[in-house]
Structures are given as structure tokens and as C-alpha cells.
Amino acid sequence: xxxxxxxxxxxxxxxxTQAFATLITDTFTTDQYMRADRGDSFTHTHDISPPYVPGxxxxxxxxxxxxxxxxxxxxxxxxxxxxxxLLGDLFEVDTGSESLDLGWLGLAQIFFGGNLTYQLTATYGxxxxxxxxxxxQTRSVPEPGTLALLGAGLIGLGLVRRRNRT
Length: 166
Hints:
Number of strands: 10
Helix content: 25-40%
Low-confidence stretches: 14-18
Order of helices and strands: HEEEEEEEHEEEH
């Protein structure tokens, strides 16, 4: 009987693990010259599956776009991104990066398909698009082994209570 208890304890502890939160990143590099007067746009898909499994809970996600303004004497440049939010994002382009939090539209793309497709459009002026980085923080969820451990504990409590009654 003692050997059986040890075997059950070993099996339950071996399968009781916790899936920890994970940061998944995907980086894309390019050097795309974009001008608004030509109506330039650029579409890219970040595919993070694997390691992301569609349907895994997501805590947060962001898309960082990298730019280089070709000159400081030609005024302001603007770009828009479609595919992250219902209405899109419009922002001023400077040398450096622009970080955008994903709205429900972008999160749904990742949750159901494991990828994110966006379209960057030059809306005013000209600039160089240097690439993007998608960062997705998944949520920590209990594994089935954790639930098995909880169930074994409840069964054990029930057996102890039943033995004490008799």
C-alpha cells in the first residue's frame, strides 16, 4: 500500500507543471523608400507560429516600426497603418521607431491565425521604412497536470473524511 501511494504521488507530481508566460518576438528588416505623392504602401505579415499556438491566451502585443527620415529640411512626414485597429493609426514619421499597441483586430489575427498582417502607407512626405518587430506576451495558464494534482488532493481529502466517519 505504501509503494502504491509513492507511485501515485510520483506520477501526479511528474505531470503537474505550469505553463509560464512567454515573450515571442518576430523581427523583419527591409529598406523601403516610401513617398506619399506616389501613393506608396507596403504590406507585411509577421508569422509567429510556431512557437505561438493559435488559441493561446495573450496578455499584450505591440508592433514597433523603424524609420529613417531622409532629410530634416523637407518638413513633416506622416504614415498610416491598417490592420491593427478598426480605424487604423496615423502618426508622424521621424528617424527612430514608432511603437503601436495592438487593438482587438490585431489581437484577433494573432489569436486565431498565429500571424499579424499590416499595411503601412505613406500619407504625407517621404521616408525610409526599415522594418518592424512584433512582440507578443502570452498568458500563464495551468496545465492539465495541475488540475490533476488538485483533483487528487480533493479525492484524498474525501477519503480521509470517509475513513474518519467509520
